[in-house]
Amino acid sequence: MRSTGKGSLIFGFCLALLSSATFGLLPLFSIPSMAAGVGVNSLLVYRFSIAALLMGIVALSKGKSLKLPWKDILGLFLVSFAYAGTSKFLTTSYHYMPSGIATTIFYLFPILVALMMIVFFKEKFSWNVVIAALLAMVGVYLLQGTGSIEGIKPVGFLIVFLAMLCYAGYIVFLNHTRVKLVDNFQAMFYIFLSALILVFANHVIEDGTVRLDPIPDWKTGVNILLLGSIPTMVADLILLHATKAIGSTNTALLSCMEPITAYLVGVLVFNEAFHPIHIAGIIIILASVFLVIMTRSHIKGER
After folding, report:
1. 8 A C-beta contact, residue 218 and residue 36
2. Domain that holds residue 119
3. How far is residue 143's CA from residue 259's CA, in Å, rounded to a whole number?
4. Which of 70, 153, 197, 279 is the one with CA 20 to 30 A from 135?
5. Tell me, what's the pLDDT at 293?
6. 3-state DSSP call for residue 208?
7. Counts of helices then strands in the chain (DSSP H, E)
8. Rg of the Cα trace of the chain?
9. How far apart are CA 46 and CA 215, in angstroms?
10. How many domains does the chain contain in total?
11. Is residue 1 part of a domain?
12. Is the CA virtual torsion 22, 23, 26, 28 positive or negative?
């Protein structure tokens, strides 16, 4: 990626924060849908079906071609596999440990992104990356709560690590494969389409049927439509712009706005419990964001 000016970097930071906050809206639409009887696997199929369809419509309306050279297919499939794998592994990990612990561990993924960039792309090591990532993890720990550690199965740690690895790979692959050369709308259409194929295959294998859970009422239909559009199509498109603007490491470090949005949705919409310690968690997460912006805005973008 080309070096960018400070103004462009700040704009990229804003995009990364906006994308992260938008991803945090996932519970707002997914929780009511699952409560209405739509299973996780069916919900993922609906989610990516809508995202692929809407992105295809947007791309065509802007005069973009959906024809894709064969040489770009492997990179897009790799990105899609990492994208779908993140959702699958993180959701599965909740069966082996409390979701708070799993989410807290998952938010170490910026360190994995930084390590990938150092090992494979010779990015300079920075302690600020480690400090910011650890601050974010502590903030998520205070925000999420952990629940009891009794009965945690060791396989749970392996599964959540796979989720971390997939998401770290997703962010790195977006900016360091041929995907970065593909038009943004075209790239996201094929990422969603490939993710749809993967989650549908997983649905058939796990549930033993090609039939999806029915959508019981129009309110659930609206929630699923919004799930596939706002925290999926819109959030990922902004994420792609952010990685191209400020690079993979910066984008990963600024992803910590997602748990703040999810927490606010839980408190304001689903009447979840509020505790003063949660404010401390939010402040620590925002401190990690401030650290990233103040220290890395002077660093040239990735090449």
Report:
1. no
2. 6-296
3. 8
4. 153
5. 73
6. coil
7. 14, 0
8. 19
9. 10
10. 1
11. no
12. negative
Q: Which two tokens stand for residue 68?
A: 């894709």
DSSP 164: H
Q: What integer pLDDT is reported at residue 95 of this predicted model?
A: 74
Place of tokens 């925002």: 286
Q: Which amino acid would we find at residue 278?
A: H
**Count of Cβ atoms closer than 10 Å to residue 259 Cβ:** 24
Q: Is residue 210 part of a domain?
A: yes
Q: What is the pLDDT of residue 6?
A: 62
Write out pLDDT tens, residues 172-231. 988 888 888 888 888 899 889 988 998 999 999 999 999 999 999 999 999 999 999 999
Spell out the residues 6+ positions from residue 141 whose beta carbon is closer than 8 angstroms to its own. 100, 104, 281
Q: Which two structure tokens, joined as six digits, stand for 111?
A: 């360190």
Task: Give the global pTM.
Answer: 0.82
- Report pLDDT digits (tens) over 17-69: 999 899 888 888 988 998 899 998 999 999 999 999 999 999 999 888 888 77
In a domain, 22, yes or no: yes
Q: How far apart are CA 39 and CA 30, in angstroms?
A: 10
Q: Is residue 301 part of a domain?
A: no
Token pair in block for residue 117: 């960039």
The candidate with the shortest Cα–Cα distance to 170, out of 266, 86, 276, is: 86
pLDDT tens-place string over residues 226-285: 999 999 999 999 999 899 888 888 888 888 788 888 888 888 888 877 788 888 888 888
